[in-house]
Design a protein that fits this description.
eight-stranded mixed beta sheet; five-stranded mixed beta barrel; about 20% strand; EC 6.1.1.22; protein biosynthesis; nucleotide-binding
């Protein structure tokens, strides 16, 4: 959407809003959202005189007039702005209300404050419905400015801070924008599995899913508590089976009654079953089951090795090759021992897949999607973006506008390397050497997008040796139809490709990379039966939030970060 269209749409919405309308309770709560008061074009002034119930957490509170009343700045998370609340000492014990973090629900009348104050509306409290008290001496999130590093040690409370709440709303907006974009373009949302038996990236840095360890521990405890039967126990059971068998034979030979023979057979079957259980139990050995000196995964829960997914791409391709346009959006996992500000062990990916489409279509879709998200934030989340600009990155809003309005530069990998080599000749120093065949490092990507072009850049046609087996081999047999979208602040935001649809070529690529064919037979079937040209990409959702907000560390833009040594909550 063009910027002029956005402004017009915003103006239409404001015009449609009748400022004399009474404010409504939330549909599923007996309170009014603070957003519905202070988020109005008039800042809530048009609601003066109305009685409302509001609830939230105290951001700041102070007693005034020698303890005769208190000012509270109340926030319920619906928007970054607070509602000023005034409570008289005759209504409640003020000392219980003013501590930062206190939860209060109050009934009162909205009034226009005196001239000269920044608030457009305030709430004069008539009664206090609820107080969730806080001991200021123990509360770990005081109103003083706290570092994001400190807040990582208090994940369960950090969403009460202005920064983390703003990031949460921005994250929510980007998720909503993602679904809106793909739904508007007739993509089907497909849920791909978290547990997989395929390594999409071929990197091997995957979390394994197994019950072998817990089952081995359980067995070990059981064997200590109930030791396996001895050889003499088994021999005695065998002897009993023999005796019962002889008894049955004797009854048959003596032409005993049918009832007597049946009862004897029942006894024989019981001792046979008991012997079978004893023999089975005698085979139990402590430890993880092995076969031919290797772990026997046939004894595992899925009867084979299984992992947490690193990507839903391979699975979602099965739907693209049947219903054409699809996308998946969910958590992915990487067991990489990385402590950088750019890596997480659990992160979210948006992965569309488009049938009957090539690399050019892939790049067009990626560019349109990124622009759509930037426009969405500018139109629907500007107050939170203004908070980020004020407190973290002055240029974040300008960066969103630039990306939303600027055509992305498109250059081949070979051209990108040539530009980097020219930069080196001109005196630019990179930590990582530049030559054709390397995987571009973050410093190379950021030089291209931040320094050379100062706008988003799409690099395409990468060397096949540094890309995954499923990317389509180009006619030069040296490069594949891959593309990366590079943006200022984070470097690579999107990685994608046209997929290899030719059966013989992709089979050869799998073997070239030393991967076993068996786990990918189902993937090869997509090429055996009704193969189609198709493409797709993956966007790292947290990286998009880093790009949008200007936050430096990826651990601060996901609600519950997981990284080496930490998996709190």
């Amino acid at each position: 959407m063009a910027e002029t269209d956005q402004v017009a749409a915003s103006a239409d919405r404001l015009a449609a809003m009748n400022l004399s309308d009474s404010v409504q309770n939330h549909a599923f709560s007996d309170r009014v959202l603070i957003l519905s008061i202070v988020g109005r074009p008039d800042g809530g002034a048009g609601l003066a005189g109305q009685r409302v119930r509001a609830g939230g957490w105290v951001k700041t509170g102070r007693e005034q007039g020698k303890g005769t009343f208190a000012f509270l700045e109340l926030n319920d998370g619906s928007c970054p702005a607070n509602l000023q609340v005034i409570v008289d000492a005759g209504v409640a014990v003020l000392s219980k209300l003013v501590a930062t973090g206190t939860c209060v629900v109050v009934d009162g009348i909205l009034k226009v404050p005196p001239e000269g104050t920044k608030q457009r509306i305030e709430l004069r409290v008539e009664s206090v419905v609820h107080i969730g008290e806080v001991d200021p001496a123990k509360y770990p999130i005081p109103k003083t400015k706290l570092t994001l590093e400190f807040l990582r040690d208090h994940l369960h409370l950090r969403s009460r801070t202005n920064t983390i709440a703003a990031i949460a709303r921005i994250r929510n907006a980007l998720a909503f924008a993602t679904h809106s974009f793909f739904q508007e373009h007739h993509f089907l949302y497909v849920h791909t599995p978290i547990i997989t038996t395929s390594d999409c990236e071929g990197a091997g840095e995957m979390f394994q899913v197994t019950t072998l360890i817990s089952e081995a521990e359980k067995l070990e405890k059981d064997l200590i508590k109930n030791p396996p039967p001895s050889e003499s126990d088994i021999e005695a059971a065998r002897q009993l089976v023999t005796e019962r068998g002889v008894a049955v034979k004797q009854l048959k030979d003596a032409k005993a009654s049918k009832a007597d023979i049946s009862a004897s057979v029942v006894e024989l079957n019981k001792v046979k079953e008991s012997l079978s259980k004893l023999e089975e139990r005698s085979k139990l050995k402590p430890g993880i089951p092995q076969k031919d000196g290797k772990i026997d995964y046939t004894q595992d829960f899925f009867a084979r090795q299984a992992f947490l997914t690193v990507s839903g791409q391979l699975q979602v391709e099965t739907y693209a090759c049947a219903v054409s346009n699809v996308y998946t959006f969910g958590p992915t996992f990487r067991a990489e021992q990385s402590h950088t500000s750019r890596h997480l062990a659990e992160f979210w990916m948006v992965e569309p897949e488009i049938a009957f489409a090539d690399l050019q279509d892939d790049m067009n879709c990626a560019e349109a999607y990124v622009k759509y998200m930037c426009n969405w934030l500018l139109e629907k989340c500007l107050d939170d973006m203004e908070f980020m600009a004020k407190n973290y990155d002055k240029g974040c809003i300008d960066r969103l506008r630039m990306v939303a309005l600027t055509p992305f530069v498109r250059i081949s990998y070979t051209e990108a390397v040539e530009l980097l080599e020219e930069a080196v000749k001109g005196g630019k120093k990179f930590e990582n050497a530049v030559e054709w065949g390397i995987d571009l490092a973050s410093e190379h990507e950021r030089y291209l997008t931040e320094v050379k072009f100062q706008k988003p850049v799409i690099v395409y046609n990468y060397p096949k040796g540094i890309k995954a087996f499923y990317m389509r081999l180009n006619d030069d047999l040296k490069t594949v139809a891959a593309m990366d979208v590079l943006v200022p602040k984070v470097g690579e935001l999107i990685g994608g490709s046209q997929r290899e649809e030719r059966y013989e070529v992709i089979r050869e690529r799998i073997m070239e990379m030393g991967l076993p064919l068996e786990p990918y037979e189902w993937y090869l079937d997509l090429r055996r039966y009704g193969t189609v040209k198709h493409c797709g990409f993956g966007l790292g959702f947290e990286r998009m939030i880093l790009f949008a907000t200007g936050i430096d560390n990826i651990r601060d833009v996901i609600p519950f970060p997981r990284y080496p040594g930490r998996a709190d909550l």
